[in-house]
Amino acid sequence: MANIYDDVVEVARRTMVLFFIVDTSGSMEGAKIGTLNQAVEDVIPEIREISENNADAEIKIAVLEFSSGARWVTQSPVPADGFEWQYLNAVGLTDLGEACKALNEKLSRNSFMSDITGSFAPAVFLMSDGAPTDNYREGLEQLWSNNWFKKAIKVAVAIGENANRSVLAEFTGDEEAVLSVHNPEVLKKMIRFVSVTSSQIGSQSSAVGSGAIDEVKSKQESFVEQVNAAYDNGEFDDDDFIEW
Questions:
Q1: What span, in angstroms and rounded, lies between the C-alpha atoms of 210 and 118?
Q2: What is the pLDDT of residue 218?
């Protein structure tokens, strides 16, 4: 007698891409880039676990660094279960505009969003400690015309006193999605929180809408709510730590 489960097939999961957009300009050299590298490497197993236990979506990771120009560290999104963080070095300028253009080019069904099973809108995590040295507005305007970016979870971490929060708010479209950090210990906490929370929220199905783009209308708001709750709970208090 045939087992009733013999014909059960696994339902293909859709994809959610987590983008790390990392400022590797010269001002990040030393403790900042070192802490960032270690913190992201440490959180990858948690992202991998979220992906493995998610029936709706497989999480993939893409990494873009920018300094004097922009460079994709990953040539395509890498499944979390096979992703290994490549340590980044810091040197050069802060060409945020070039990073925006590079991201815009890949946020397309003809490129990084081409998974045949379909894609949730991505989560985009920008980290920077300075101000743009190029014409960032041109690249940012292109990026904000991209529907994938409009619906993405967008968060930026402003590292240190010299980070330009107003520019980062232009990137996220929301001042509350710009998180300030002034020392290595809190940066580690912030990277873990953003990576895990955006992965959890971004890879969940939503009852809003029926298309891949429309399903995530409230996910940015959900993320900001989690951010505010974390601040209210004192998770990012940094008074007891030495600054950069």
A1: 12
A2: 76
